[in-house]
Structures are given as C-alpha cells and as structure tokens.
UniProtKB/TrEMBL annotation:
Source lineage: Bacteria, Bacillati, Cyanobacteriota, Cyanophyceae, Acaryochloridales
Similarity comment: family membership: Belongs to the XFP family.
Source organism, top-level taxon: Bacteria
One of the GO biological process terms: carbohydrate metabolic process
UniProt-annotated stretches for the region Disordered: 1-23
Residue ranges occupied by any Xylulose 5-phosphate/Fructose 6-phosphate phosphoketolase C-terminal domain in the UniProt entry: 612-813
Protein name, as recorded: Probable phosphoketolase
GO molecular function annotations of the record: aldehyde-lyase activity
Cofactor: thiamine diphosphate
Keyword Transcription regulation set for record: no
Length: 815
C-alpha cells in the first residue's frame, strides 16, 4: 500500500488533497494487520453496512433470499446514511484494539442521526439481542430489527436510550466531547472514544469542550480518544473543518493541546491498515502517559492523541444516482433514494447496492453472523454495546451522606435575623465530598466562591492541569487532583456532569440564574433521555441532575437588566412531570433539607432556586423538614385566620417575594386589625399542579382547603407570573388568583426599587389586597394612599442615596 510517511502529530503535507478518495494517507504508517485480518475485518464492516441500509429500507426479506419487492420496503423512508458507514468502520477497528489491549472502552456517537452506524455493530456482537430477545440473531430477528428502525412503535435515528451501549444521543448541538470527558472522570481504566461529526464540529459547545483535556488527571481519570469524522458535508453544505488546509487543521488541534493523527482515504484495504496502525499508536501513547503518571505520582497535562478520519460521505454507497453525484457529496446525508416504491430503476439499484455487500458470505442459513466474523467482537461486558458504564445505574454506589440537620442554623423566632442562605450549603457539600472522594464532584462556572460555596475548597481544590504561575499559590484553590470542576463554559460543565451521572456517579451544579439559560437545550435533552430511559426496564436508575440556581433576579441590582431573567423555570415545567422537580426554599434550613433530598434521588432533574445573599430566616430545622416534606403549607405564625375563613390569602414563593409578602402582611394587619389573612409559603413549585398532572401535585380537595374556593389570592412569585397561571389554571379558585412576579422591568436598581418596578414589593401587594377585598374597597382608601406615598418615598430615597431606606433594609417580622 502507499502512505505518506510523516512525523507523528504533524499534518500531512500542506499540498495534500482534501479529497476523501484514494489509497489511505496517514500520519502513522505501518501494516499491523495480516491479509487474513484485513479480509475478516472488511467482511465485518460489510455486514455493518448491509445492516445499515437494511434498517433504512426493509421491513421484510432481510437477507435478500428472494428478489426485492416493493411490498418489502417501508412506506415511509427515514434515517441517515451519510456518516453511518464511517462510524461502523471505526467501531469494527475498536473491537480489535479492545481485544488486543484488553481495554475497558465505550463509544459516543456525535454525528446527528448516526444511530445505524452504531446499532449495526451492537446487533452483530449480540448485545442488542440480549436486551431485546425478539431481535434475535437469525433471519426472523433480523426482520424485526430492520422493521423497527424509524418506524412507529420502534426506535429513532439517533442513539437514543433504547440503544444498548449509548449514553449520548448524537446531534445534540455539540456535546459529544464534553460527555466523553464526563464519563472518564474517576474512571481510571476507561477509554471513551468519541466520534465527532464535522457538522457538529462547527458548534460553540463543541469548540469549548476541546479544552476538557486540561482537566483530566492521568492518575485518577481515564482517557478520551476523540475522532473527528470529516466526511465533508452537513445536510447540503460543506463543513468548515473539511475545507481548511491540513496545516491549519493540525495547528488547530495542536493549539487545543492534542496530537492530531490523520487517516484519510476510501480504499478499504489500505484504510484498514492505516486506521489499525493509528489506533495502536494512540492506545499505546495513552497507556504510556498513564503508566508514567501513575508510577511517578505526578499528574500533568499530556498531549493526548486525537484522530482526524476523512472518508467520503455515504462511503460505499452508489457513486451516482440519476447522473448526480451521491457518494462523497451532501446528497448522501439522509435517505439516498426515497422513491424506491414508485421507481423500479431505483428499486433495482437498491437491491444491487445491498447485494454488493455479499450478505450470503456474511450470514449463515439461519441468518446468523458466521463464526469467523462473530469472533472479531469482544466478549461479555468488554463489548461496547454491553459495557456497564453505559448503563451507569447498574454500577452506581449511593452517596455516603452526613446528617444535613447538623448544618442548619438555630431559629428561635421567624423573620428576626438574616443569614446567607447558600453558605451553610457549601459546608454541607464539603462534607458530602469528603465522604465520597471517588464518585462526587461539584461543578460551577468560576462562581462557587461568589455563590458562597467556597467551603468545599477545604476538602478539594479546583481541578487544573494547565500551566501554573507563582502567584497561583496565593489563591491556593488549584490542584491537579481537584474535584471541583470550574470552567467558564456552562455547556462544557453541563456535559461533564450529565455523563458523570449517566455513568453512575453523583454531582452538584451551581450557576447564576441569568446564565442557566446557556444550557436550556442541554437540560431539555437530558430530561428527555431520563424520561425514555425510565421506560426501559433494563436501564437502571441513575443519580439525578441537581442544579442550584442562585444569584437570582431580585438581587441583580449591580449587573442590571441583562442579568434579570428567571425564565429557566418556565422551560423546566415543559418537561415530563415524572422527571422534573422545582424547589424554592426561602431560607437556610429549607435549602439544606431540599439539597439532601435531591442528592439522594435518582432519575430526576432537580432545580433548586435560592439566592446567595443575606436573607431573613424563618424556620428551625424541624419546621423546615416538615414544611419541605409537605412542599406547601400555612405559616401559622404569619396568619391570623385560625378558626375563620380568611378575607385574603397571601402566598410567598421564593426568598424576596416571601419577604415582601410578609411585610405587606404586617402593613395590612396594622392598618386593618380585623382583616383575616392566611399566609402560605410554597417550596415545591409543582405542588400547584393537580395530582392528576404531576406526582407531587395537590389534590383538588387539598388545594381548595389551602387556597379557598372564593377568596382573593395574592401570589408573590419569584419568576414570571404567567407560569403560576399555567400550573394552576384548572383549579376551582383560579379566577381569584392574582400573581405578581418578574415582568421584564429593571435596570441598576436597589432591591426594593426592582421589586417596585415589577410590583412584587410590599406596597404593591398591600394595595392589591385593598383593591380585591370587598370590605376594603372604600374603607381602605386612606391606607392605600399612605402605602402609595411610602412607595414613592422609598423610590426617591433610592435615587438620591443609591440604597434602600433603613426601615426597608432593617425590616424584621415584628408580630
């Protein structure tokens, strides 16, 4: 064979053609395979390609043992051919190195709709049939296997949770590399191979995730082998990285800190040798680095190998269809010929194409892969389709938890002193980490100190494998063996955490409320994954995704309007109620209770909203536990309707909204001693939904008992007010539910001024009660006038002095 010899880690010559065709051109040269091995591996790959085409087209005649007929073709042809043959080629070679080096290895498929290239080898190694016995390894099972793909009642064209061996669905807007690194943290023997689609490589999240290598400890962590699969095109456009020079491409990944290894071409024989030589080199490099670090005890940043694998898009498909270029062009992205039922010429072309893989040489009379090819795959849990890390709940160890009660603060009288809500949580997380130093990490985008969680650094520093400067010692928070993961990319952090959880470990993510929107789509995809995985009996539950949303909207007086957005909650409530939970603890003890519950839960996305600043404290630990257990309840100490029907129901949900509602409560009771007020606090937001809609929802009887059937309800809410109406629209007293929340009004405001702008302040609430309680409509005029004057005075004070009036800042519950 002909290869261009080059120095490992360097680009091929800059004048090298960018064409994916021809004999293999590779950075690493050599012929590690015997002719017989090449023959067998090529046959295995042909079997994969045959299955890939069959999945897209066939519902019958799976082995083409009779002429192909239109009745055997699916009526709706769905799926993607383009990247699939290249992915199955890689998988075939990974099987070899797993056996040769006795590796613990998993595979993450980044290209969108790349499932056929993964599902085919998973079926061939037997993993698929073990999970789905009806998809047996014979002609009958193969027929069912083909029919289910992109078919009603079957499976989709991504590597969904239904796919054994998958923890990454593919096409998820650039998260494959961050997911891959998340799998190997604290998994020292695992190698995760991540195939990056060249369309995917253009995304922002993917670009930042290449820096994950700076956070990989070669002593305690495994390794990631990224393979950039350049097949040249997206849906119908070239991809950027496929059209830049070899020198620029090599320089890009050298700049990221990798050793780029090129493997390019289309000739199967030489490509088998080239990829085999390259993988041997890469695995041996990884093992050498790990052995050095583990023998010396010195962790440092190594230049790990990565592979740039350039092949034609739609490799081995028809070169042309109807005189138009197909293989190696964007037309091969999806279904090559979508009209085979109506076009006899295309039906014949499909049959010829499938027969070109020579299925009669690959499968025996029963339709089972022949023994010589079956032997190429690893056995048992060494198979990538059966690796236990891809079903992390099977190997998950529960957290060893300290008693959260010991981290609370004493509260003798509600609302009479302030404390920083999140600081005790940092102490609690410190000790959770101390007890779980191999399966728990804290994630945050350079904000853990800002979020008052910095006590965790007493147990573990921030992971850092890049360069150190002398002054770094002064901060004292960086370490090669750190377990606090900080990077100013919410995308990358979320990707690390998701994969860390899916492989059976535990984590906690804290971020500013205004920036959590960065991971909207990632949250969506993870919630969907958990939902589907929970429907599969063979998928074991995994630890929940726990998000602390802090530095919240009502205390963004310094960052201003751009940092005022509580809308992540609206997105969360769109997901399946079996998966999502939202908690709004108003004080330290309720936050600790919620956090303890969330850390021990599985198969949920838990969103906790709690600000980091000083806030009034309301409940001692026992009261907080009871209140959080109920999720919603009457605060008797803030109510005066005992034994009566209330005139009005005041509700606080969130720290500042609760404080302002309590202050309004006092103002009203001082002005109208006979006014009966019931005060509710909501911790579990989804309690507002009916129990028929959410597992935590209140029954109509319980909701009516708390909120009454006909009295006005003034609901002071942390987020956008319409979310509460969305959750409670079916309730009997919804017509009297009046929600106050953030309404996109704000700037560089003091806390009270921002509340006034959005009408969640004590004055607006008190005035609203006067307007809605019939007996106060006239009698309350003087009080309403007084409250308006006080509101104006407070706003004027803020404009003059830059702070809120002392009576506001120092307000305490007086009753």
């Amino acid at each position: 064979m002909v290869m261009t010899p080059t120095t490992p880690g360097q680009a091929l010559p800059n004048n090298q053609s960018l064409s994916p065709y021809g004999p293999a051109r590779a950075t690493i040269t050599g012929n590690p395979l015997t002719p017989e091995e090449v023959k067998l591996m090529d046959a295995y790959w042909r079997a994969c390609c045959y299955l890939i085409v069959g999945m897209i087209y066939l519902k019958d005649n799976p082995l083409l043992r009779e002429p192909l007929h239109i009745d055997q073709i699916k009526k709706r042809l769905l799926g993607h051919w383009g990247s699939s043959p290249g992915q199955s080629f890689i998988w075939t070679h990974l099987n070899r190195v797993i056996k040769k080096y006795d590796l613990d290895m998993i595979y993450l498929s980044g290209p969108g709709h790349g499932a056929p290239g993964v599902i085919a080898p998973v079926y061939l190694d037997g993993s698929y049939s073990e999970v789905y016995p009806e998809k047996s390894e014979d002609a009958r099972g193969l027929k069912a296997f083909f029919k289910q793909f992109s078919f009603p009642g079957g499976i989709g064209s991504h590597c969904t949770p239904e796919t054994p061996g998958s923890i990454h669905e593919g096409g998820e807007l650039g998260y494959s590399v961050s997911h891959a690194y998340g799998t190997v943290f604290d998994n020292p023997n695992l190698i995760s191979v991540v195939v990056v689609g060249d369309g995917e490589s253009e995304t922002g999240p993917l670009a930042t995730s290449w820096h994950s290598n700076k956070f990989l400890n070669p002593i305690t962590d495994g390794a990631v082998l990224p393979i950039l699969h350049l097949n040249g095109y997206k849906i119908n456009n070239p991809t950027i990285l496929s059209r830049i020079s070899h020198a620029d491409l090599a320089a890009l990944f050298q700049g990221y800190g990798y050793e780029p290894l090129f493997v390019e071409g289309s000739d199967p024989e030489t490509m088998h040798q080239a990829l085999a030589a390259t993988l041997d080199y890469a695995i041996e490099k990884i093992k050498t680095y790990q052995a050095e670090a583990r023998s010396t005890g010195v962790a440092k940043l190594y230049r790990y190998p990565m592979i740039i694998f350039r092949t034609p898009k739609g490799w081995t498909g028809p070169a042309e269809i109807d005189g138009k270029k197909f293989e190696g062009f964007w037309r091969s992205h999806q279904v090559p010929m979508a009209d085979v039922v109506k076009n006899p010429a295309h039906l014949q072309l499909l049959e010829d194409w499938m027969k070109s893989y020579k299925p009669e040489e690959l499968f025996d009379e029963n339709g089972t892969l022949i023994p010589e090819l079956k032997a190429l795959a690893p056995k048992g849990e060494k198979r990538m389709g059966s690796n236990p890390h891809t079903n992390g709940g099977r190997i998950c160890k529960d957290l060893r938890m300290p008693d959260f009660r010991e981290y609370g603060i004493p509260v003798e009288k509600p609302g009479t002193f302030e404390a920083p809500n999140t600081q005790p949580l940092g102490v609690f997380l410190r000790d959770v980490m101390a007890r779980n130093m191999t399966n728990f990490r804290v994630f945050g985008p350079d904000e853990n100190t800002s979020n008052k969680l910095n006590d965790i650094y007493a147990v573990s520093k921030k992971t850092w494998l890049a360069e150190y400067l002398p002054e770094d010692a002064d901060g004292g928070e960086l370490a090669t063996n750190g377990r606090v993961m900080e990077m100013l990319s919410e995308h990358t952090l979320e990707g690390w955490l998701e994969a860390y959880l899916l492989t059976g470990r535990h984590g906690f993510f804290a971020t500013y409320e205004s920036f959590v929107h960065v991971i909207d789509s990632m949250f969506n995809q993870h919630a969907k994954w958990i939902q589907k995985a929970a429907e599969l009996p063979w998928r074991a539950p995994v630890p929940s995704l726990n998000l602390l949303i802090t530095s919240t909207v009502w205390r963004q007086d310094h960052n201003g309007f751009t940092h005022q957005d509580p809308g992540f909650l609206d997105i969360v409530t769109n997901k399946d109620p079996e998966v999502v939970r939202i908690y709004m603890p108003p004080d330290v003890n309720s936050l600790l209770s919620c956090a303890d519950h969330c850390l021990q839960s599985k198969n949920y996305v838990n969103v906790i909203v709690c600000d980091k600043q000083m806030h009034l404290q309301y409940m001692d630990m026992d009261a907080a536990i009871v209140h959080c257990t109920k999720g919603i309840g009457i605060w008797d100490w803030a109510s005066n309707d005992q034994g009566y029907e209330p005139d009005v129901v005041l509700v606080g949900c969130g720290d500042i909204p609760t404080q302002e509602a309590l202050a309004a409560n006092v103002m009203l009771r001082e002005a109208f001693p006979d006014l009966k007020i019931r005060f509710l606090n909501v911790v579990d937001l989804l309690k507002l939904q009916p129990d028929t809609e959410h597992p935590h929802g209140l029954s109509d009887r319980d909701f009516d008992s708390l909120f009454t059937l006909d009295k006005p309800i003034i609901f002071n809410f942390h987020g956008y007010p319409w979310l509460i109406h969305k959750l409670a629209y079916r309730r009997h007293n919804h017509v009297n539910l009046h929600v106050r929340g953030y309404k996109e009004k704000g700037n560089i405001n003091t806390p009270l001024e921002l509340a006034i702008e959005n009408e969640v302040d004590r004055f607006s609430i008190a005035i609203d009660v006067i307007n809605r309680v019939p007996k106060l409509t006239v009698a309350g005029a003087h009080a309403k006038e007084k409250f308006r004057n006080q509101q104006i005075a407070a706003a004027n004070y803020a404009f003059e002095h830059g702070i809120d009036p002392p009576e506001i800042v120092n307000w305490r519950w007086p009753l």
